[in-house]
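Researcher: Batch entry, complex prediction.
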Amino acid sequence: MKTPTQVVRLIATLLLACCASIPAFGQNPRLQIKNLDKLSKKASEVVDVTLDESMLKLASRFMADEKDEDDAEAREIIKDLKGVYVKSFEFEKEGEYSEEDVEAIRSQLAAPGWTRVVGVRSKHDGDNAEVYLMTDSNTRNILGMAIIAADSESLTVVNLVGPIDIAKLSALEGKMGIPRMGLDKEKGKPSQKQAASHDEKK
Amino acid sequence: MKDLENELRKVLERREPPDGFAERVLAQLEPAPVPEPGWREALISLVRLPGLRWAAAGAVACLLLTLGALHYRRVQQERAAGEAAKAQVMQALRIASSKLNVTLKKVQETDRRLPRA
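Model: Structure tokens for the complex:
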């Protein structure tokens, strides 16, 4: 038999647990990028990838070839992901997309949980690249990732939903047709400390 | 009393039936109803017919072939969807990795250019 004090403590603990879980429920690493669909008509090249968890699981089943290194690495990266969404547009001339198009994505990344870990802006050629991570406020685990890469004639938005190993994603350079960038691996790892943006001023 | 006994004996004494009595009775009897065959018996009797036996075997073979073809088609569709999903994953990872690395490379280059304290 519980005393009234114990019952009150139990209720208070339950309420506290509920309140603590509210921010976790509110964190949604899935971005709404459908607003970019209108750019398809203007673009000379479009890549549109929409893969939810079931499609990723289906794809994993077809990456079961242990001998294929690319398959094995890709499967390892996507194994815990809940979604992969990419929209990439190449334009033949400048000014085909507006700053508002990008701002609609960026405003979602201002929501709690998202942190810009890397930001590069070149005033010289208009290159703009930003990497954002959503982390769980309690566990600090990565819940999702977003990349916005834009220059005068192209725009790419990548949204990976779920725990992603950035080091493994970066380590794909030189494989799967990805150009080798010659990254300094020690410096290449983005960390929370690197959250401050780097503005490249040429 | 004796008269009564005599009369009873006379009434109850055994008498032979008239000629043709048994035949007449049997002729009036209705023939016994033949039991209707059940669906199993009907099916078995149908299968016993040589032509129908082949037709049934053909129908079963057609059914099996159709089911096999449908299963094969479903497997092929699933394989196509899986291969397409895999190609999409590879393309997405290619884009994500290269954009991430381009960004990281620019950060590294900027860091190198910055004067060391």
